[in-house]
TrEMBL record:
This is LacI family transcriptional regulator. Belongs to the bacterial solute-binding protein 2 family. CDD domains: PBP1_ABC_sugar_binding-like (cd20008). Keywords: Signal. Residues 1-23 form the signal peptide. The keyword Transcription does not apply. It is found in: Cell envelope. Its main location: other. One of its GO terms (molecular function) is carbohydrate binding.
Length: 312
């Protein structure tokens, strides 16, 4: 009873602040708080909450693998009667029952970054993520611009058939074929293992000395690809485009190993997710799918705010 009373007291204090008539808590729950990517989501959410009259809570498990902990966080948010939830589900199936409970309680939910499984349809109002097909096409256009419209380009992918991979790599290959005479080498699948990507890239470079360009389609793959280019003495000689924006990839952009890297709008996921939920609380209609965009980070813009907001 004691802790419940304290919670009620805390809510009472929060509600006493100047706020709109429907003020409440918007709970942002992510895959883990121990990652710069998710801290960028928090920055975006914090920027957006100021205009809503609501309060913000930000939470996530200690690791992305702690799925049960994330389920508990959603259940706790429902139990304390939050006004809305922004959720990045770490598992597409395991989070469905918790989101259903939120839906039954009349709490609007925005899903960000990764989709819920088929069984979760109708339990949330909007899904916000990078349009991976658009990102793949952007990478292809940049590749053609820098590598020319013929010759060989290798595709270093991660896990065959994953939703993001189908869009990102599929649309990259389609765009290359539609807009150029480039010959695609691969795709090769690293299973999201940096060491595997390094070995695969080393082999591809050795087998194709005339390679014009190479695309690394997610963070561990692009890091392995960059390291292989350096070890082979090919850094800066092959047009290399990565995906994601951790410190290794930023260093590769700065030293010219990568011509650019495509970074998902993590800040925008938090910002637009909170705005969408605030609109839903206010009874407004929100698009069922919202593209949170992608930023092509190059040596030219790596210090600019648009890049700084998404790099991690």
């Amino acid at each position: 009873m004691h802790s419940k009373f304290k919670t009620l007291l805390a809510i009472g204090v929060v509600m006493a602040l100047p706020a709109t008539a429907m003020a409440g808590e918007i709970a942002v729950i992510v895959k883990t708080t121990n990652s710069n990517f998710w801290q960028n989501v928090n920055k975006g959410a914090t920027a957006a909450i100021k205009d809503t009259g609501h309060t913000l809570s930000f939470d996530g498990p200690a690791a992305e693998s702690a799925v049960a902990d994330e389920v508990n966080l959603v259940d706790n948010a429902v139990n304390r009667g939050v006004a809305g939830i922004v959720l990045a589900p770490s598992d597409p199936e395991a989070l469905i029952p918790a989101v259903k409970r939120a839906s039954e309680a009349g709490i609007p939910v925005a899903i960000i970054d990764s989709s819920l499984g088929e069984g979760g349809k109708g339990t949330y109002q909007t899904f916000l993520a990078t349009d991976n097909c658009t990102a793949g096409k952007l990478a292809a256009d940049k590749m053609i611009e820098l590598a020319g419209s013929e010759g060989k380009v290798a595709v270093m992918s991660y896990v065959a058939g994953v939703g993001s991979e189908i869009g990102r790599v599929g649309c990259f290959v389609e765009q290359i074929k539609a807009k150029s005479k480039i010959e695609i080498v691969g795709p090769y699948y690293s299973q999201s293992q940096m060491a595997t990507a390094l070995n695969q890239t080393t082999d591809v470079l050795a087998a194709n000395p005339d390679l014009k360009g190479i695309f690394g389609a997610n963070e561990p793959t692009a890091v392995g690809m960059g390291r292989a280019l350096k070890q082979a003495g090919k850094a800066g000689q092959v047009v290399a485009i990565g995906f994601d924006g951790n410190e290794d990839l930023q260093a590769f952009v700065k030293d010219g190993t990568l011509s650019g890297t495509l970074v998902q709008g993590s800040f925008q996921m938090g910002e637009l997710g909170v705005k969408a939920v605030a609109d839903l609380i206010a009874g407004k209609t929100v698009a069922p799918q919202i593209d949170t965009g992608v930023v092509l980070v190059t040596k030219d813009n790596i210090e600019a705010p648009e890049a700084k907001n998404v790099l991690y």
